[in-house]
Structures are given as C-alpha cells and as structure tokens.
Sequence to fold (950 residues):
Amino acid sequence: MDAAEFRRRGREMVDYVADYLENIEQRPVYPDVEPGYLRSLIPTEAPMEPENYDDIIRDVERVIMPGVTHWHSPYFYAYYPAASSYPAMLADMLCGAIGCIGFSWAASPACTELETVMLDWFGKMLQLPECFIAGTHGHGGGVIQGTASEATLMSLLAARCKAVRWVQASNPKKSEAEIFSKLVAYTSEQAHSSVERAALIGGVMMRKVPTDNCFAVRGDILKEMVEKDKAAGLIPFYFCATLGTTPSCGFDSITELGPICNGENMWMHIDAAYAGSAFICPEFRPLLNGVEFADSFNLNPHKWLLVNFDCSTMWVKNRADIIGAFKMEPLYLKHENQESGRHWQIPLGRRFRSLKMWFVFRMYGLKGLQAHIRKQVALAKEFESLVRADKRFEICAEVILGLVCFRLKGSNELNQKLLKMITKSREIHLVPCQLSGRFVLRFAICARATESRHIQQAWQHITQLTFELLQEPNH
Amino acid sequence: MDAAEFRRRGREMVDYVADYLENIEQRPVYPDVEPGYLRSLIPTEAPMEPENYDDIIRDVERVIMPGVTHWHSPYFYAYYPAASSYPAMLADMLCGAIGCIGFSWAASPACTELETVMLDWFGKMLQLPECFIAGTHGHGGGVIQGTASEATLMSLLAARCKAVRWVQASNPKKSEAEIFSKLVAYTSEQAHSSVERAALIGGVMMRKVPTDNCFAVRGDILKEMVEKDKAAGLIPFYFCATLGTTPSCGFDSITELGPICNGENMWMHIDAAYAGSAFICPEFRPLLNGVEFADSFNLNPHKWLLVNFDCSTMWVKNRADIIGAFKMEPLYLKHENQESGRHWQIPLGRRFRSLKMWFVFRMYGLKGLQAHIRKQVALAKEFESLVRADKRFEICAEVILGLVCFRLKGSNELNQKLLKMITKSREIHLVPCQLSGRFVLRFAICARATESRHIQQAWQHITQLTFELLQEPNH
Fold:
C-alpha cells in the first residue's frame, strides 16, 4: 500500500470510525459468541500472496464486530470507563506516523519533553503539591505509564530498593535476599488485584488491611498492623492507598495514613486509577487531600479523562528514587544529553503518548474536561435516585463519583440470578462485585455518549427483569 | 469535537500523515535542539477554554517536529528499526475506535481470540515447533506483549515460580526468600540491558556469560558456570539466549545451549527481538534451529515486520507455566468463560493489537513480508561491500542480517571523533556500540523507505567526513 492508497483508505477508515461511534447504540453491547468462535471464521494460516483491502474491511464486520464488547456504547456500564475522544484518536494517528520509540531523550527529544510538560500541566490541573511538578528545577515530576498496574509495580520496586539501601546503611553485612524476606507491604483488602501482583513480582510479603464500613482503610488499623510486624522483626516499607477502589469506589483515609507512612519511613503510593480524573473539579479535589504525604501518585486519564488507552499518569516526589532503582546505560543508549532521558518504567520502548494528552487538554480546555466529569457524576446520581426510589433495592456504598453499587434486598443467589438475566438479555452490560460478603451489582457510567435517556432506559430494563424474576414461583 | 468534525479533521490528518512520510527525506533526520527546548515554546498551564484545532495542528510543526528524531527517514540508521506501514496504521485507527480493554475474554472476545489465532499464524510462518502453537487443543501458544523487556521479565518470573515449586517439592520447609537467594539466572554479556533489569526486578542473581569471537554464547562456557554455581550450593534456573544481539546482531548457539538448559532443568528463553522477523525466510530459518529446546521465545514484529509499535510476540510451550505464575481472579473479572482469558503480562489492560498483525499479514502476504526482509538484508550487504572496499575501514562482526558494525582502523578516539562529526552534520543518524573494548559504529537498515541510493549517499557522506577527519593535523 503506497501513500496514495493510504490517503484513500485512510479517509474510508475515518468514516468507518465515525460511523461506528455514531451508530454504536444499534449494536448489541455484549457479544453473543462462544469461546473459540473466531477461529473457524478465518483461515488457519496467513496468506502467501497479498490480499485485497476490501476483503479485510468486509471481514471486520464479519469476523471482528460480532465478538466485540462495545465499551463505548451508552449501554455499557461494566468495569470502569475506557476513555475515548476524537481529539485523542487524531493524536494517535500522528503518534503512529511519527512512530518514534522514546526510550531516551535522543531517540526523540519532543517525545520526552512534551511528556514532562504535559505531566506538569496535568499536575497543576489537579493542584498537586509543588514537589510533584518537574518545572525546570524540581526534583519531582511525572511520567506516562501504560497502566496503573505498571505504576504500582514501579513504585513498589523503587520502595524496595530504597528500603534495602536504608537497612544496609546501618547493617552493611545484611544481604539483599535477607532484607527482602523481612520486607512487608500493605494495601487495602479492597485494592485492585494488580497491587497484590506487584508484591508477588517483587518477591515481598503483602498484607491486606481490613476496611471500615465505607470500604476505606483507616489509620489506626494500619498503625496496629505495622507495630505488630515490627515487633516480629519485620520491616514495613510500603503502603499502596487506593482512592476510588474497583469494587465500590471507596477512598482510603490518606490524611490519616500519610503521616503514619511518613513516620514509619514507608513509601506511600496512591492508586487513583479511576477516581483521579475527578480531582480536576474543585468540588472533588478534597478527596485528594493528603497527597502531600505520598511518595508517588497515579491515575489513568485513559479511564475517565477522554485520553484513549494507554495513558496512565504517575508522579513522584523524587525522580531519583524511581530512576535510581534500575539505571543502566549501555553504550548504544548513551548520548550527550542522557540526563534528560527517562527509564521510569518496565518497558524500555514507548510511544509518543503525550500527544494525546496535549490534543485532549487543548481541544476540551480544563472547563470542558470538568464538564465531562460533572455530567457523568450527575448521571450516576440520577441512577442512584431511581434505585433509592424502589424499595425492593438497596444502595450498597456511598455514590461519590460515577459508580453505583446496588442490589436487590435479599439473597446473593437472587442477585446472581438478576445479573444473569441482564447479561443474557444483552441490552445493557454490567459486572458484579463482592462487598462484605454480599453479591452486588456495579453500575458505572462509562461511555462519553451516555445520556439521561440511557440511564432511564437501563433502569426500566432492570426493573422489568426484576419483575419477571420475582414472578418466578420460587420467589 | 463531534463526528462530523472528526470526519473532516481525520481526513486532514490522513493527508498530514501521508505527506509526512512521503516527504520525510526533506527533514533533518536528527533534531537540532537542546534539552528543555520545548518548555519555552508552549504555555506553562493547560488552557481553561477549548482551543482551536488549527492552532494545535500549526503547533505540531512549530513545537513537535523540530524535536523529532525521524525514525522513518531513509537517513536513519540508528539502534534497530521501528516498524511502520500503512496497513498497520489503518488497523491502529480501528483499534482506537473499538477502544476495548482486553483484560479478559469477556471484556472483548474478539480481542483475545484474534490474538491467539494471529500468534498461531505467525508461529507457522516462523515454522515454530508444534508445541508452541495453541490450535484448539495445544498446551502452548502465543501472546502479544508491549516490548521484549516485558517478555523477558514474564519468562524470568514464570521460571522463578517454577523453580520455587520444584525446590519446595523436595524441601517443603524452605521459604521462598531462602530459595530466591540461591537462584541464578544467566545471559550473554552481549544481552540487552533489559535482561539484567528483569533479574533486578525479580530479585535474583544474574550472571553474564562471556561470548566467543563471534559474540555468541557457547555451550561449554555456560555448562562450566552452571557446574561451578551448583557446586557452591546455588540453583541455576534460567538462561536468556539472544538471537541477534543489540550491539552486533550476534547469535547465541542455542543448539548447544538448549540441551544443557533442558538437562539442568533451567528455563530457556530466547530473545530474538530484532532478528526474529527474518526467520520467516527459509534461508534465515536455520538461525532459529534449537528453538525446540526453549520454554519461551520472543520477537518484535514492531521492529522489523512492518507492524507499528507496540507488538512484541511471545510464545510459550506451556501456557500453564506463565498463567500460573500470577493468576488472580477477583469477582469483577470473573465471567463464565474465564478459562479463555489471558493474564500473561504485567499490565492487566491491553489494546486490540492483533488487528495490526492481521492487516499487515493480509495486505503483504508472507511473500511481501519476506521481500521486505530480503531487501533490507541486501542493503546491509551493499553497505558492507562499500566498507570492505575501503582499506581505511574494517568490518567488526559478521553481517548476517540488516546490521553492519564497522570502524576506522585505528584508535577508539578516532572513531569517536568520526561519530561526533556524523552526528553533528545531521545528514544521517547512527549510534555506536562497544565490541571487545573497541568503539564501533553501528549501521542498521531501518526505514521501509531506504533504497540503494540512500546507502550510497550515506557512505559517500561518511567517507567525506573521514577525509576531513584524517586531514586534521594531529592525524
């Protein structure tokens, strides 16, 4: 395919993308396929000779679309949102064309530098303390990771490295392995599975801290666990706080937890993957109070801030902590301005992802982004009101942002049945969670295209299925 | 920006991309900027109000392009190639529109399933042993990682997990920490820095194995090191072989190393990040002989197979090894068909990257991809001949694929000066490496647009600078 054909096919693809998103409501949000459906639809081997582009595009509808869960359908209320916007898609096209691999400053200076400045822009939008801003002379700053999992892992590894150095400063003979075996990390029992996974990868113990009745970790309980571990000769070194947990969008009490971590010389990382985007609104910013105690902070604009996946922004107070954890400079990566490079992540190569932030921030403006957050929170509140007005249902966690956790009053089995009916009907898509042993339905406002009428329609659908369910003879 | 505006702006962006790539020769391949150049060109904060799209596009030329290292310029000969093709870019546009986060089968069945089948297609193109093919009943199979660094890390972690289980099977009382402290991994002294980094992350020892005069690790030397470590009470558990090392494109002798690893119960991972793509050509496939001994194998189509970054393909013999290393299934990820999901990587979320492979494989066909590899190898051979014909120069490593390592006969200092002149002139871009203590220039065929005339021109430029250098009074 030459440039001329790309111009033609590119235009067609732009229209395909616009058509897809404009008419997404007409597609069933959740696919009706069984595992293995795709293999039988395409050949078992790659073609020897080039194929016709038209055939490939036809196969997108024949092979791919029947198996797609449409995350941007206004009937999609599962998990948390995946961000999507036209400016981000345009920036990604540019990113693909430039196609640089930004593993060092010299590999493409603009890639490294725009990222640093975008993280400063964003940090200011979030009113982060000055220590997290790189500026021209700061010690802190931000970086784009692929996912929150990677940010958590990087913070845990940096904390581990710092803890080893700290222990060895007073006990130079202690081996790394010996120290590793004493290190203890902590996180909420409500934390995302990737936090536990980070500890597994890093080869350190991870304790799950119980939460209060708002599904939040409080200071006293962490303090108690830390004391107990220290008394047993262990070395508490890391706490991962969550702002906006995956099950219920709960908020750990970082104003209580931060001083404890600081006092105990423990690294505090804040995972605000979903909720973090809301902190650009003054009315939600108090939820981030306490960030000044953190060593690192992460949120995913690719969840809720209209920047297409992947774009997970992470700030650290001391760049040296995270760079120092793994610095290695073979000759083929050395260049005259290497200090400006950044090996802050697991993968060495990286795309020019900050272009997406730049396009989105400028095309929406801070006000436009705030409006997006506020609209989705209002939709969640609208859904909450509908649930609260129906005595058969209960709300299971405070609705603070765009997630509503609710259930039918009654057994877990009943709620499992209801979810099964919802999934089977394929009119809307949502997933469950478990809160205090109870099976709960999660209703997350996801798609940019979701409007009040969709919320009303979803609720009508849920109550209709509920009616059918409760009609069954055994109820 | 609504769909109508996206249609218009998208068309403009398609043209911008085509123009950029068609006229890339006219841009200086390496930017003339100093660290920090970008910050002064844009505001210090994000705008409050939405901006005009035309202003943003104007800023792409004003702010971004002056700081871009143009990886797809035919004057770019640095590092290894970053793949780029029009079909891959079209697929990426589609991927952005679908915008699913494929962390489980249910999250988007097509995303998981196309990936599995594409890895089978590709495995067959590479003539991988049957055990690496998933098919409908296989125990092996492939996955797309972001980068080779992630593939290496995953293989090391899986190997670590397996080693712990194996040791604990006969010594149930041994703690994980105790075992970790005895584990030893091995790789070539020529291996990529990310291999050493994987061991640092995993908290295990890593030994660098010396290479022979072709910069290859041979069986006898690994055997010797393993025996020595075992005698010292350590546990050799992992060897990362490289096919196509970063400095010189050297090939470890996997036919010798494989049986040793198998005999010692050590996991053998093969990192063929760059060279691997060439194995789709029958004449280069013998370089992969010995893969049957490997537990895992990785190469980057995003380097040399026209699939834009990121797309790093990894196969394992036993899926259970790599899935089992970190399986965790919280309720919000559970679904009825969860066995078909895949948590084979560090990040939980992932884009629909297999679309790029599907588009590229079909639009080029196996023959078209082979032609691409062969053309670039021929260009490297052409450059090699030019170097060999000039008695002032020497070739420093056998030219097998698309990389030529060469230097001026004489001191390292002389060669450093020559590279400095090349970099300063900005007509071509290349980076150095160190081979047996000698400072060597690497000339890698990178851009898809590179033709014979560019090679001739590059050589003329190098010899012109050499002439100037050797004219200097102190030579």
Q: What stands out?
A: Chain B touches chain A through 145 residues (CB under 8 Å).
